[in-house]
Amino acid sequence: MSDSVVTTPKWGSTEMLPLPGRFNTAVRSLVAQRRAATDGPWKDTVFERQFDIFSVEDARAIEREALDSGYRFEYSATVSLDSEPDKYKRVDREARTFTEGLNSDGRRHVGVGDNVIKKSQTVTGPVALVSTIEQVMDFLTDGIPPGTIAVIDDSGGTLTAPIIEGFAGVICLGGTVRSHLGILAREYDVPTLMNCKINDLKNGDVVELEVTAAPPASDAYELGDTGHARIWLIENEG
């Protein structure tokens, strides 16, 4: 499918996102072509031959063309960063939102979050701050180093969906355990903390995720009873 100009919708507004505009333009074009080649009143075509005009397979073919052309869901993957930067904070910036402390064994308590899947053991590994499509493409091409724990924002569930199962753990700076990322984490059995508050972790810092903590109760977010899973800094890269 060529990158043709998106036509103005009948009702006087344009699609805000590039993919719906591209998809809908292709649908309109195909329907117009087939309608032009069809005899008979429009009402007969709509009610009796609608699947000759446009079918499920047509929709799938348009989707395949878009994906095969290299389309990436960039808007969905980065929308939180663009729309609410102060709330979600880019993971490549400092995020000083947690008062840290030292444990008796010298580990530094640098964050809290909501555990998605209760595990029998904690998870330890170096962090990778993931906030761009280019980083995800590099991981797809070169592979994810063993043990990597991803630090992402709320839209990072979409951003990292193609590689989520390759991480040893995930620290998400937004969302809840019932969000889309929480569902993916359970599906792929990836230890994940949601709704995290952390200090300024840097690429390569080794952390321990307390995924032995119980997930939040069903009314936890209404009551504010969250943040019981702790994040410990084991080794500081910087």
UniProtKB/TrEMBL annotation:
Gene3D superfamilies: Phosphohistidine domain. Keywords: Plasmid. It holds the Pfam family PEP-utilizers. Residues 144-209 form the PEP-utilising enzyme mobile domain. GO terms for molecular function: transferase activity, transferring phosphorus-containing groups. InterPro entries: PEP-util_enz_mobile_dom, Phosphohistidine_dom_sf. This is PEP-utilising enzyme mobile domain-containing protein.
